[in-house]
Amino acid sequence: MGHDANHHEHHEAEQNEIGGPVTFALVCLVLAIVVIYFLAK
């Protein structure tokens, strides 16, 4: 049972590490689309 708890904690840690870069990439993508939209006018 201890092994399952450790695996769960490790999985949460991986999600937190991935969450930062993924969120940053999505924000950059949205900003790029907005900039391109206004430059294209």
Class derived from helix and strand content: mainly alpha
| Cα Rg | 18 Å
Distance between the termini: 60 Å
Overall average pLDDT: 77
The percent range for strand residues is under 5%
Question: Which residues form runs of ≥5 with pLDDT under 50?
Answer: none
User: How many strand units?
Assistant: 0
Specify the number of helices: 1
Largest sheet: none
In N-to-C order, the SSE pattern is H
Whole-number total of structural domains? 1
User: Globular, elongated, flat, extended or rod-shaped: what is the shape?
Assistant: rod-shaped
**Roughly how much helix do the residues carry, as a percent range?**
over 70%
Kindly describe this structure.
The structure is a single chain. With 41 residues, this protein is mainly alpha-helical. It has one domain. The protein is built from one helix and no strands. It has one helix at residues 2-40. It starts with a helix and ends with a helix. The model has no long low-confidence stretch (mean pLDDT 77).
For the structure shown, list the relevant keywords.
95% helix, rod-shaped
Summarize the model shown.
This protein is 95% helix and 0% strand.
Spell out the blueprint of helices and strands.
Layout: H1 2-40
